[in-house]
Amino acid sequence: MRAIAVEEVLESEGLDLNGVATHAAGPEGSLLLTPEMLLTEPSGNLFGLSQDVGMGWEARRLGGPEVLILSTQGGMRAEDGTPIALGFHTGHWEVGLLVAEAARALKAMEALPFAGAVTDPCDGRTQGTTGMLDSLPYRNDAAIVLRRLMRSLPTRAGVLGVATCDKGLPAMLMALASSGPLPSVLIPGGVTLLPENGEDAGRVQTIGARFAQGQISLEYAAEMGCKACASPGGGCQFLGTAATSQVVAEALGLALPHTALAPSGQPIWLDAARRSAAALLRLRQMSVGTRDILTDGAFENAMVVYAAFGGSTNLLLHVPAIAHAAGRKRPSVADWMRVNREVPRIVDALPNGPRGFATVQVFLAGGVPEVMLHLRRAGLLDTTAMTAAGVTVGACLDWWEQSERRRKLKENLRERDGIDADEVILSPDRARERGLTSTVCFPVGNVAPEGSVVKSTAIDPELIGEDGVFLHRGPARVFTAETDAIAAINAGAISAGDVMVLVCCGPRGAGMQEIYQITAALKALPHCRHVALLTDGRFSGVSTGACVGHISPEALAGGPVGKIVDGDVIEIRIDRKQMSASVHLVGEKGNIFGAEDGTRRVALRASRGDLQAHPELPDDTKLWAALVEASGGIWGGCVYDVERIEEKLRGGQR
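The structure assignment produced for this chain is given below.
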């Protein structure tokens, strides 16, 4: 970069200073006002019309219903799509195209579109950095701002939400859920395409760990890192939080059938925006509000579809938050356990396997409606629940089953990639034959008395006994900082049989940071499948292995996980058939005394003396942690329950 002179900063040569205007002609025409409007409308509504024409809208077209389009747009693109200013991630890069498409459709239907944006961060970009300390708390902030923007257009007839990724999409769903009697529709931002010759966006995030282990060359890492995001927009190619949130949005009925996981930038993706605009106006004509869609049955359907897909464990935080925003009962751990015991996993997607197809291939295989067809046949769905299409789940599935769209997309998948759609989305019987098991278990025990979660599908099948049980017993290796844990892995200091215990990662410690950097590095170890991980933090949806997270209470809240020391013997037992699991302290330095004695011993211990919050934890995140702890904690969805917060504040004042 050349040196920049101060003169260039203070002045621009040749600028016409005499041409600076103070007046303009103003818009042509006149507002379509009536005496009643002038006498009864709030001044804000009237001045809003002045601003509408001032921004260029024709005065004669101001009578249509006003529809707000909110998005997570980030970055700035030229008309040819090239970057002017980059966004944080591909997931919000192209969504402005969906906003424009929906707006044009609304305008053609004589509605008045408005647009606003609240962009979002990328968990992939902030892995292993202090940016992760803001990741989960950001979701609540964004939901608040989105709701404030909605209320700041008091004349809105409905809201379209456009979002794609890990925090922006759950935040958007939380905001839309608050719409009550007004209609709202979610337009998913879709997924990015696979590289023709390269690695997917999940695997490419391990290049540092694999290089440290001598598994790949510098040249290979550079080339694969360049190719991974093969198209400029959309969420990652695996069933992480972004993709799972899209699936859940459709299962809730807030997104139109077969819009989740569409390939970003493609005509079929843009078409969803046009149809979603029409759907919103149709819901308005039918007087169907968001509260008519987000029923208890809709949330049950969302949990059922989540289990059938085998999605990211982060949705255990987001679905209760959406329910809370909708004024519905928040799903409990018992609800998740029940659903995951009843519902078979029938989707073979990255990272779960066994073959691991990409999200765009799941879309071509039929996506959410294809999965719901199998679930309907099994009697696991509430088919009377209303959807954004203005008809019930059952009616949508009747359409899908006979649709040309379904048939042609499956043919496309076979012709383009040589993949049989029935190998991607399986019948329950076929899924059982292939060894697919339910998604998540919730280990409890003397290390996690309030619960934890493990993605049991991500454990190496070769470690599962004939009885369907995974059993790991090994010495604890305790770390109070992610940097120390990753250094130990890269240095080869983690041995087969170890149980890594990473604490101070919960809400109080680090904003409940996501530690995919750790699970990705473990995956690069030759003996990775023989190492287990316990943490009070959370995982990425692409994480694999025997990783137990969300351990509660967290270490800094006095949880037993914060009392574990090096050499303690930890036993993890996961029954994938019964969907039950436990995590216990059972010994010390090779002396085995069992879980019952371990419970007594851990109760007598004090917390470790080296526990501390991340030294750069922002005050904003500390405030968030205090508020969510008062509101039901992580199992309550990390929400702000105003009544419970006020009650605790009043108690403190007394």
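Interim note for the steering committee: The chain has a mean pLDDT of 94. The chain has 27 helices and 15 strands.
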